[in-house]
Specification:
about 90 residues, mainly alpha, about 0% strand
Amino acid sequence: MSPYGSIDTVMENMREQLSKGPYVLGDRLTALDVLWAMGLRWGMMFGIVPEFDEFQAYTARYFERPAAVKVLQEDQNLAKEQEEAARAAGIS
C-alpha cells in the first residue's frame, strides 16, 4: 500500500521518470536518489519491486559511485565483524 497510489502506479511513474535521465530529477544526483536507489535495490533483492530494466540500470549506475561503493564495503566489513564476534561468543 502506498499513500501515492497503487504500487503498480508508483512503479510505472518511477519507471517513466527514470527513462528521462540518469537520476530521478534529471542529470544531477539529489538526496532523492539516495533514498530511491537504496529502496529499489533492496526491493528488487527481496522480490518486492519488479526488476524493470530502468530500475536495474539506475541502481547499477548509483552503486558505481565512489561513496556508494564505500558504504557497501563498510557494510560488508561490519557484517563480517558481527559474524566473527558471534562465532567467538559461541552464538550461531
